[in-house]
Amino acid sequence: MLGEFDLIARYFAPLAAGAPGAFGLANDAAVIDPTPGHSVVVTTDAMVEGVHFLPGDPADLVARKLLRVNLSDLAAMGARARGYVLAMALSPDIDEAWVATFARGLGVDQDEFGIVLLGGDTVKTPGPLTLTLTALGEVPAGTALTRSGARAGDDIYVSGCIGDGALGLKVLRGELGSLPEGHRASLADRYRLPRPRLALGQALAARRLATAALDVSDGLAADLGHIAIESDLAAEIEAPAVPLSAAAQAALAVDPGLREVILGGGDDYELLFTAPPGAAAAIAALADELALPVTWIGRMAPGAGVRVVDEAGVPIPLAKAGWSHF
Amino acid sequence: MLGEFDLIARYFAPLAAGAPGAFGLANDAAVIDPTPGHSVVVTTDAMVEGVHFLPGDPADLVARKLLRVNLSDLAAMGARARGYVLAMALSPDIDEAWVATFARGLGVDQDEFGIVLLGGDTVKTPGPLTLTLTALGEVPAGTALTRSGARAGDDIYVSGCIGDGALGLKVLRGELGSLPEGHRASLADRYRLPRPRLALGQALAARRLATAALDVSDGLAADLGHIAIESDLAAEIEAPAVPLSAAAQAALAVDPGLREVILGGGDDYELLFTAPPGAAAAIAALADELALPVTWIGRMAPGAGVRVVDEAGVPIPLAKAGWSHF
């Protein structure tokens, strides 16, 4: 294994080449210049081998998921991503090939999302590989989306499909064996490679369409609970309205009990947001513009708590309040 | 042990109370508004139990060291500290009392340095406690100090005293037993609780006195090597000029072989910087103003590499190129 400085020079400095303020990673800290009139948005997420990913997971996908879960947090604030810093605690089994593949994954997503590596820290650990990424973005001052702005009567929307993340984890654990291979692969991919909805978040903020927003990481019901609590309201969603992928629909057809996994499981990284009824047409137009499904799933109301109702309006009890990454 | 949300609410949300953009830690990301005309400075450092600190180390001191090594990086850029995000991978042996003490340490240093907690992530690890802190600061645009600006003929200065960090680590490992207890305690304290030189860094940047700067974390010789490489120059320091604390002088008197530890060891977190000869009076005035010793130790010259010479101008070979935290 190379030493710290050689690892940085060979695999990480090239990822910082596009950022003059990263100084080729040969400095104590990095400098970025926010666009005038913008606030800086910052978020951090850690992933531990054996907890958040499996020892054999492809290093490039681990890198991209780490980056994307952070970008998803920026998306939920309506921010544009600028760059990131990365702290790696490398376990003894990590070799140079792993680092090379990991860095290649970062490079792929840097290109996809237009961001750069700004800095980092590389240390050794006798324990499992532990990766911490801090993403920096920016948003026009005063427009950042939060969880607390929902109002009674607001509609509740979600982007993309819900449940694929939790079902994908089941697939990777060897469950859902009766599903066709194509569906299994699709679900696993959705678990491993979230799609941060940056364009949607930015447009919702810039056009002031959303009153509250977050990304679905703890599970639809639990995350909606965060909006309800922070906005001091109740939320009611109609289970049949929740958008499901073809793969999730197929899984649900085989085992209706998976409805709870779909509504309560995490790792979807879709945007969940509220908007006044008057914004419906503008939201539909935005969804068309982005070629991204945005689906009405319920409504905010006075009160507290999250209710999920079925076709007949009967509440569905959700035993599992939400996925805890803790 | 409390769950993630309860831990955050009880121990960490109070640390974010002073930052409106932290949203009480109940949001996906945090927002900060840089002062207009300023660049944002970002740095990250990770610490692993058993590697960077010992399992029995007081949690409040671990917290404060983690914060201070990051603040020291901001100081080296001439930045003012604004806030930080914290990712914690908690090992099974960490209990609520540990977290409470850790958070109390953060609170003490938040008050001392005028910063706030902006956000974070809390996960579990089967391995050692792993802490990653990312600090954010700001500096007037165009004034950030870097490692690459030194010019031939520039003087080399260092703040405070050199060697206490490395000697303090020896004390904590049970070495240097012949030193008086007061000296031993002083060295251990310097290892455990660095003094980030924020006021000095900010003044050097604002008054444009320094041509290059960094903080001494890898060891005086190795860190000066970073400036030499990035500035494409040679550096020569006079060993007798290097400022030593009374404790380090006492240690050196007992064992002259410790000179190499002092010059090559790390963890001093003093500022090492270069400045043109014409800045000498202004630097002396600044040192007076801050009541912080700033000492001339050598000079930059054409060429490459770092030379350390003794009283007679004879080069001292340094076997250990520098402390590696990797």
Q: What do you see in this structure?
A:
2 copies of one chain form a homodimer. By secondary structure, the first copy, chain A, is α+β, with helices and mostly antiparallel strands. Chain A has 2 domains: about 5-140, PurM-like, N-terminal domain (60s Ribosomal Protein L30, Chain: A), CATH 3.30.1330.10; about 155-310, Alpha-Beta Complex (Phosphoribosyl-aminoimidazole Synthetase, Chain A, domain 2), CATH 3.90.650. In chain A, about 35% of the residues lie in helices and about 25% in strands. The two termini of chain A are about 30 Å apart. At the A-B interface, strand 1, strand 2, helix 2, strand 3 and strand 4 of A face strand 1, strand 2, helix 2, strand 3 and strand 4 of B.
List the helices and strands and how they pair.
The structure is a homodimer of 326-residue chains.
Chain A: H1 4-12, E1 30-32, E2 38-48, H2 59-76, E3 80-90, H3 96-113, E4 116-124, E5 130-140, E6 155-159, H4 164-172, H5 181-192, H6 198-206, E7 212-215, H7 220-231, E8 234-238, H8 246-254, H9 259-264, E9 271-275, H10 280-290, E10 294-301, E11 305-309
Parallel strand pairs in A: 3-4, 8-11
Antiparallel strand pairs in A: 2-5, 3-5, 6-9, 6-10, 7-9, 8-10
Helix pairs in contact in A: 2-3, 2-6, 4-5, 5-8, 6-10
Annotation keywords:
homodimer; 326 residues; alpha+beta; 60s Ribosomal Protein L30, Chain: A; Phosphoribosyl-aminoimidazole Synthetase, Chain A, domain 2; 2 domains; six-stranded mixed sheet; four-stranded mixed sheet; 10 helices; 35% helix; globular; disordered C terminus
